[in-house]
Every structure is written in structure tokens, then in C-alpha cells.
Here is the input.
Amino acid sequence: MKDKENRFLFGLWKKESGLGGMLILLCIMHFIAIPFFGSYPRFMVGLNIFWMLFLFAGIFSLSKHKKQAFIISIIPILFVIIQWIDYFNRNIIILFADLFLTIAVMGLLILLVLRKVLEPGPVTTYRIIGSVVVYMLLVQLWCTLYLFLFRHIEGSFNIVKSQFEINSDQASFMYFSYVSITSTGFGEIVPLHPLARSLVQIEVLTGVLYPVILIGRLVSDANFSIKKQE
Here is the structure.
């Protein structure tokens, strides 16, 4: 068991300090990898494989029973299978299955990190960092949804042309997702389709409510820990 916990990916889940590692990985992915290397398919495939391994490590580290871990693991396994099928035989059913499983995988990752953040005990710096990790994962989730709409519903977004070459559509919508969730709204990307606008509204609402609710929960945990010590 100790060997398992000492492995890099398992260590990120088992130790609170691992949340800091997750934040660094996400920062590299969101601010370097996707903006500058997003147009390289092999690189992105490698990145996705890493995140799948990371997710599996989280599932097996945090699950109370092996049976539970194997059941939950069905989601990422199906995701990988659908990705391979989509690569060789793309059709509408596979397309929506891929979207559904992508959302499921991202949601599962968010829940696993939230579980670490909301564990009983005193509020530490690393738990605050974990909250930021969840925030960034939410950004990535909405980026996936925006990208799907942009690619499959023509005219769903209007993107202002720039003199600078954008590395990939994913980079554009990762940027747009950050702008939306923080309610910044620079206006380079404008949602036009009703579904796109609804998604933006939900993301903005999430960006406003998530910190408020989470801070309230963490403050409550901190007060409970102080009273318990007394």
C-alpha cells in the first residue's frame, strides 16, 4: 500500500500537498500547452492520456472499495473506447457519445477533487488550492461545451479576427471560458446561438456562486475545527 501511495499519480491524490501539484499541472495545460501546442494532435493525445491515468489514480486512491473503483472506472474506459472509435469511424451517435462521456469524465474529476477539498479537518492552504483546481476544471468543462457547439453548429459564435494567429480553436475557447466565468467579457468572442448564450449564462452564474458557496463551507469547517479543539 505504501508503494502505491508513493507513486507520483497516486501521491497527488493521497497527500494534501498533491492539490498543489494538480494546480501546477492545470496551469501548464491551460496557459502553455493548449495556447501554444494545441494544434499538435499527438501532443494533445499524450496530454489526454496523462489525464486519464491521473483520473484512474484518483478513482482507485479515493474509492472505499475495489468494487466501487472498478464500477466508476467504467466511465473513463468507455471514454477511451469512444475516442478510438471516433478516430476511425465518425458518426452522429459516436459524436454525442463522445460529448456525453467527456462531460462525465470532467464531472468525475471535479467531484474527486471536491471530495479532497471538503474532507473533514482544518482548512489548509492546500485545500484552498484545491478549490482553485476545481474552478479551473470548471473552465475546462465549459471550454469543451463551447468547442462542441462551435464545431457542429455553424454561426453559434462570432469570433473577431485577430492579427495574431490563434494556435487552435480549443485555445480560443479556453480563453473565452476564463473570460466568461470571471465575468470579464472583452467581446472578442460573442455567443449567438441560444444554446451558446444559455451555456455562457450558466457559466457566469457558476463563476459567481461557486466561490461564495465554497468559502461559506470552508469557513464553517474552520469554525467547527476550532470549536472541536477547544
